[in-house]
Amino acid sequence: MIYESIKDLTSAANAQTGRIKKVDAQKAVVSLALGELSEREQSVAYATLYNYFVPSKPKNPKGLYEWVYTATGIKDVRAHLNELYVKDGKFIATDGARLHIAPIPEGEEWENENYYNLSKHAVKVDRPYPQIERVIPADVDGVSAPLGEVKVEHTTVTHKNNCTFAVILTAKDSRTGEEASIAVDKRFWEQALQMGGDITVGIFLDKIKVTNDKGCLAVVMYIRNVRS
Questions:
Q1: How many other C-beta atoms lie within 10 A of the C-beta of residue 133?
Q2: Cα(129)–Cα(84) distance, integer angstroms
Q3: How far apart are CA 10 and CA 32, in angstroms?
Q4: Burial code of 190-209, b = ≥16 C-beta within 10 A, e = fewer?
Q5: Is 42 exposed, middle or buried (0-12, 13-18, 19+ CB in 10 A)?
Q6: What's this model's pTM, rounded to 2 decimal places?
Q7: What is the DSSP string of 46-114?
Q8: Angle at 167 between CA 171 and CA 91, to 5 degrees
Q9: For position 105, what pLDDT does the model report?
């Protein structure tokens, strides 16, 4: 047996660096078919094939799992941010600049406090997950409004010669009358809205919080604060 569990295979695959090309996958298939590889070489070949066939992040996520997974990191040196985390009946993912959380659908069983990749395979990660509770703001600290009442302006933000597409969000709290504005990454904003449902947007000093009536939550850190 080359790998004792799926965790061992996914860990070996994650240890590989660089993009796996089609020619790499073909070489792995040929080498395995010829049966002339040592056990170590076989393990590398299987990890190469696993990496090649792992799906990329979906642009249009289907279901809560894929929506949450869009917030994971990509080849981040902090390996625990590259995978989705399951804890206390929730899917959780963050890349350090945003956070997605969704309730696990009723009837589905997942191993608590465990990491998973986009293929829904368990991944061995020897680091604790970040304390996400610290970045989720309380509603009383910001301005909240239904999505339909949030003004959205498209703009660009330049920092150190890098240009980022952004949106400036402006909302007025129906309870207090207070108005606030903030700029966030356009892609992160649009992906947060893919949670669907009846959406409410909260604007805070350095972030926004997006929630819906299905128990989903997204937090996106600001690019440039334009609070009036």
A1: 6
A2: 10
A3: 18
A4: ebbebbeeebbbbbbeebbb
A5: middle
A6: 0.85
A7: HHHHHHHHSPPPPSS--HHHHHHHTTS-SS-SSGGGSSEEEETTEEEEE-SSEEEEEEPPTT----TTE
A8: 85
A9: 95
Tens digit of each residue's pLDDT (9 = 90 or more) over 133-159: 999 999 989 999 999 999 999 988 776
For 34-62, how does the pLDDT look when each residue is reduced to its tens digit (9 = 90+)? 888 888 888 888 888 887 887 778 788 99
Cα distances (angstroms) measured from residue 31 to each of 17, 41, 42, 139? 20, 9, 8, 57
Cα atoms in the 13 Å half-sphere on the side-chain side of 37: 18
Amino acid at 2: I
Mean pLDDT of 192-206: 96
| 175: amino acid identity, one letter | R
CA distance 74 to 54: 13
Q: How many CA atoms lie within 13 A of 30 on its CB side?
A: 6
Note the pLDDT tens digit of each residue in 19-29: 788 898 888 89
Residues 108, 187, 217, 116: is their CA dihedral positive or negative?
positive
